[in-house]
Amino acid sequence: MARIDFEYDLAEGYTLKAGVTQKSYGYEIDGLQADKTFTNADITTGVDGVNDGVACGISPVVTADDGSIVNAGGQSFFLPDFNRRNELLDSGCWSYGVVAGSTREVEEDVLGYFAQVNVDTEVFGNRLRGNIGVREAQTDLTAGGITVVQGAVTPVEVKHDYSDTLPSMTLAYNLTEDLVLRAAAAKVLARPELTDLNPGGSVTIFGTQPAVSYGNPFIEPFRAESYDLGLEWYYADDALAGLTFFQKDVESYPTSETTFIQWSELGLPDSLLGAQADQLRDQEFRVSRKINGGGAMIEGAEVSWQQQLSFLPGPDWVKGFGIQANYTYVDAATDTGRPMINVSEQSYNFTLYWEGEKFQARISNSYRGEYFSNIGTGANLWQTRVVDDSNIVGVSASYDLTEQLKITFKGVNIFDEPQHEYETEGVARVVRNHSFGASYFVGASYKF
C-alpha cells in the first residue's frame, strides 16, 4: 500500500485535503486431493483395530434417534472418523493430484484519487463540522484458475477493469450544547470477495444430471447510494443516547445462484464438452455460480446507548464500570420483492466494560438474527437456505505496564457458538452445522 496526502487551509474553519492511494490485494490457493485407491494390504499393521488385515472401527454406526436430524425416523448411518482413518491407512504418504475448482489465483490493484473539504465553523451561533468530497477509484483485476473436463486440464485467465466516482458528505450540527444532529449521504462501494472471482471451474457430464460449477470474475461490486439521519443526546458526562435512520438504494450486489440451464444458453464453448458436445448441447445442466443480484432497497433504524456508571455508590473502583449497547432493525428486499441474502432483520450488541488508570477489561455479546444465505426460485424453491440466529460472546483486557508498553488479551467466541444452516422449503433439512471453536490472542504494543 502506498499513500500520498496533502492539506491546505482555505480559510478559517475550512481545509482542503487531497491525495492518491495505491492498494494491492491477492491470494493464491493450490487445491490438492489424495490420489489413492487402497486395499487391505495398505493398512498399517500393529495398530489397534486391525484384525487379520481388516480395518475395524473406522466408521462407527450412529442411529439418529435424538431429534437432531429432522424426520430421520431412527435411521442408522456411518459417521467417518478421519483421525482413525489416517492412523490406519498412513494417508500422509499418499500422492496428491490437483483439484481444479479449488486451484485459483486472484490479484486486485486499486488506484484511488480523492479530494475533500473539511469544515469546522459556526452557523446560526452553533457548531457545524464535517466534510464534503469525492473519490475516484480504478480497479484492475486479474483472475486465474483451472477448468477440467474428462481429465483434461485447461488454465484460464481473465482480466476485468472498472472505475467508480464516489461523492460523499458527512455533517454534524449542534442544535444545542447537548443535542447533535448528524446527516450523511454518499455513493458507496464494496468489492466482491476475492474467493468469488475465480474464473476456473468444473464440468461434470457423467451421471443422470450434468453440472457446471464456476466462479465469476465479472461480478460487479456492491454499489449503493447511502443516506443517514441521526440525533444524539449527550445527557451526562460520558453518556449518550442516539437514534439513526438509514437507507441504502442498492444498484448492484453479488449473490449466489444454483439453477438449471441448457448448455447452449450458458455462453460457454462447446469444446468443454469434449466428444459429447453434440449430445449434450441442448441438455439442461445444474449450474452453480456467482451472479450480479440487481437492485435492492435497504431501510432501517439503529438505537444506541452508552453510559459510564460513575454515579454508582461505593468505592472509586466501582465507578469504572460502563455499558455500551445498540439495536438495529433492517428491512431489505430486492427489486423483484425477494429477500436479500446475508441480511439479518434484527441484531444487537451489548458490552459491559471497566476502565481504570492502567487496566481495562470488557465482555461483549453480539447477536445476529437469522438470514437467508440462498434464495431458490420456481422449481428450485427447495434450495432456499437460512442461517440460524447466533450469539457470540467475546472478552478483552489490557494493562499498561509503562507509558510506552501495553499487554493485551482477547477471546473470541468463548462459548463456541455453532452456526446452523438449513433448507426451508418442504421438509427442513440441515445443510451445514459448523463449530468454529473459541480463539484467544495475547499481544503487546510499544510506543516510541
Give an overview in words:
The radius of gyration is 28 Å and the shape is globular. It has two helices and 29 strands. It has 448 residues and is mainly beta. It starts with a strand and ends with a strand. The protein has a 19-stranded mixed sheet that branches.
Salient structural properties:
448 residues, mainly beta, Maltoporin, Chain A, four-stranded antiparallel sheet, 2 helices
Distance separating the two termini: 23 Å
Shape: globular
What name goes with the CATH superfamily of the largest domain? TonB-dependent receptor, beta-barrel domain
Low-confidence stretches at least 5 residues in length (pLDDT < 50)? 49-55
Give the helix proportion (percent range). Answer: under 10%
State which percent range the strand residues make up.
Answer: over 45%
User: What is the fold named in CATH at topology level of the largest domain?
Assistant: Maltoporin, Chain A
Work out the radius of gyration.
28 Å
CATH architecture of the largest domain: Beta Barrel
Number of strands: 29
For the residues shown, what is the average pLDDT? 84
Q: Describe the main β-sheet briefly.
A: 19 strands, mixed
**Overall SS class:** mainly beta
Give the total of domains: 3
CATH class of the largest domain: Mainly Beta
Q: Supply the number of helical segments.
A: 2
